[in-house]
Write a structure and sequence with these properties.
about 140 residues; alpha+beta; Thiol Ester Dehydrase, Chain A; 6-stranded antiparallel sheet; 3 helices; about 20% helix
Length: about 140
């Protein structure tokens, strides 16, 4: 079942991310499904921590980007989605390549959404799992 209540596409998501942290980190949107978003982040000098691994905070930025965009496009026009809480379990370090994430809703209520974001390396191994809770704010 298609969940989007506003027009959404890879092109729209890319456009709204211009001149933001998303663009600076090289995060790319790659797919919009009926009930999910996919994006990826490069593992390179922009996203490494001092010990040569993908910075855990960058994984969280990727998760928050996908979860926030997902919630924002799955609510009616005039409503806003804002982050309440995010967590991440880092399961496997990544030194090079790309980490790809898929965000899917776990719960879509009237006042809150919960989205799960699963991240994998190029070998398909899970590197991080995150959940974000979004507050859905009615128009004022």
């Amino acid at each position: 079942m298609r969940i989007w209540q506003k027009p959404v596409s890879v092109e729209i998501l890319t456009h709204i991310s211009k001149n933001t942290a998303v663009e600076q980190l090289g995060i790319e949107f790659t797919e919009v499904g009926d009930d999910y978003l996919v994006g990826r982040v490069p593992v390179d000098h922009r996203t490494h921590q001092p010990f040569g691994l993908l910075h855990g905070g960058v994984s969280v930025v990727l998760a928050e980007t996908l979860g926030s965009c997902g919630a924002g496009f799955a609510i009616p026009e005039g409503y806003n989605a804002v982050g309440l809480d995010i967590n991440a379990n880092h399961l496997k370090g990544v030194k090079t390549g790309w980490v790809t994430a898929i965000a899917r809703p776990v719960h879509m209520g009237r006042t809150t959404h919960v989205w799960q974001i699963d991240m994998r390396n190029e070998a398909g191994e899970m590197t991080c799992v995150s959940r974000i809770t979004m507050a859905i704010l009615a128009p004022r």
